[in-house]
Amino acid sequence: MKLRTMNKTDCIFVAGHKGLVGSAIVRKLKEQGYTNILTATRQECDLTDSNQVKLFFETNRIDYVFDAAARVGGIHANDAYSAEFIYQNTMIQTNLIHWSYKYFVKKFVFLGSVCIYPKYAETPVKEESILSGELEPTNEAYAIAKIHGIEMLKMYNKQYGFKGVSLMPSNLYGPGDNFHPENGHVIPALMTKFSNAGDVVTCWGDGTPMREFTYVDDLADACMFAVEHYDNAELINVGSGQDVSIFHLAHKIAALTGFTGKIEWDTNRPNGTPKRPLDYSKITAKGWKPKYDLDTGLAKAYEWFKENKK
Is 81 a catalytic residue? Predict the structure, then answer.
């Protein structure tokens, strides 16, 4: 049963509109004919500053919020900048959830990540696994911040009846990603490394970890679906159903970029979580399903990278 349908003229605030997820949500909204999409750069509204966020909500009569604003990065960035990750992400989501409630937002869509789940959670990982074990140390700061956001939205729903939903996607990739070779996630970082390489590319770990990747436009589609199917701060997984080892992923991307040199593995670097596919049967049971397989998504992401790299 559909709980609420967004009107085409409703004011929809996409926080983090320049990032991977936010830009995909904006594309999806425009594609579906929404005409009142609100965005803000950091200069226009610093989301870590409660007073600025309050003023932003006072000034704009916002109906829906998609919270795609976050400090994100790969293993290296998460590990090296853990204090910044936990502070910035906690402040952003705290301000957005609180002032959305205070200024009568109809529904709040919170975006997290598979990394909220314990390192050794039973796979495929169900939503009920949250807070059931220790986190992966290399992204613990980001995970704790996101868990706080999930729980905050739940408590605002419990005490105040504030409507929302939390979506936890598997590893994401696609247009608008961070393609920095050190600070980006694995897919965009490898695209940059292989594109700029000489004869050898060194990858972190031993290549054995398995990862499930979801093309970001599929997540944007799931966001639109979730607005109309969830109300009570439910935690919902979003996945692709495709698991691939980092070893095979590296070779896929090498072939895509035309790299013909040698791939070496630095086993002194961390592997991260060994395997973490998601059980996303809750959302598929309501009728949603992904549209992009890994090969199609990688090709589209690489085309965007070639057209936009500096």
Answer: no
